[in-house]
Amino acid sequence: MNSYTVLVAEDDHGLRDVVARALRSEGFEVVTAVDGAQALKTVAAVPVDAVVLDIGLPDSDGRDVCQALRARGCDAAVIFLTARGNVTDRLAGFLLRR
């Protein structure tokens, strides 16, 4: 079993559950959040190794959440989820490297 903890921050209940189940089936510990504020609170309370982060959270842009995580010293790997298809949205995440 892996000893890694992954935060899944996704407001869509179905997608959040699918991603969380898939990660758990591979042995990861999973914590979840439904919006950016909850994601930031969760990371402050639980050290995470990776974050699966929706760009279109209801209270904030996932890229802003990523920047806030970095500003707070969180160096977890971040994987962005998005249904957006334009190049600007896809490339913006790459600019948030450490």
TrEMBL record:
<dbReference type="InterPro" id="IPR039420">
    <property type="entry name" value="WalR-like"/>
</dbReference>
<dbReference type="GO" id="GO:0006355">
    <property type="term" value="P:regulation of DNA-templated transcription"/>
</dbReference>
<keyword id="KW-0238">DNA-binding</keyword>
<feature type="modified residue" description="4-aspartylphosphate">
    <location>
        <position position="54"/>
    </location>
</feature>
<dbReference type="InterPro" id="IPR011006">
    <property type="entry name" value="CheY-like_superfamily"/>
</dbReference>
<dbReference type="GO" id="GO:0032993">
    <property type="term" value="C:protein-DNA complex"/>
</dbReference>
<dbReference type="Pfam" id="PF00072">
    <property type="entry name" value="Response_reg"/>
</dbReference>
<feature type="domain" description="Response regulatory">
    <location>
        <begin position="5"/>
        <end position="98"/>
    </location>
</feature>
<dbReference type="GO" id="GO:0000156">
    <property type="term" value="F:phosphorelay response regulator activity"/>
</dbReference>
<protein>
    <submittedName>
        <fullName>Response regulator receiver domain-containing protein</fullName>
    </submittedName>
</protein>
<keyword id="KW-0597">Phosphoprotein</keyword>
<dbReference type="InterPro" id="IPR001789">
    <property type="entry name" value="Sig_transdc_resp-reg_receiver"/>
</dbReference>
<dbReference type="GO" id="GO:0000976">
    <property type="term" value="F:transcription cis-regulatory region binding"/>
</dbReference>
<dbReference type="GO" id="GO:0005829">
    <property type="term" value="C:cytosol"/>
</dbReference>
